[in-house]
Amino acid sequence: MDYLKNRDSLDRSLEKALTNQLIDRYFDHTESWLRAILRKCIFSLAYLQGETILAIECPNLAIAKRLSRKTYPFLCFAEHFSNSESDQVLICYLDRNENWQCFDSTQKLWMPLADFVSCSAETDD
Prior knowledge:
Blueprint: H1 2-26, H2 32-38, E1 42-48, E2 51-57, H3 61-68, H4 72-79, E3 89-94, E4 100-104, E5 109-112, E6 117-118
Parallel strand pairs: 2-3
Antiparallel strand pairs: 1-2, 1-6, 3-4, 4-5
């Protein structure tokens, strides 16, 4: 069990490092408040209804709501990661019951996503 916990921690640190690189590279011309908020989040890829989409995992509802009001910086960026023409982005946080709540940029609404699966790095065991 400790191995899995350590592996999850390593996966998250790798995702966080990648997130910081992406912010430095692609969001360097955005407002400083946006970069600061994004540094508290983790960018990941997720699968939803068979589609690969960009997910921004936020540490809490306040940050997720703030990002959901300003999705345009993410839409073009998301096209690089999708296997379709969609520029869908999910801005998500875990609620008090450990359920994912996500803002869907294409539908412009909040929804619970029980089948949300973030793609963590895999290693060969």
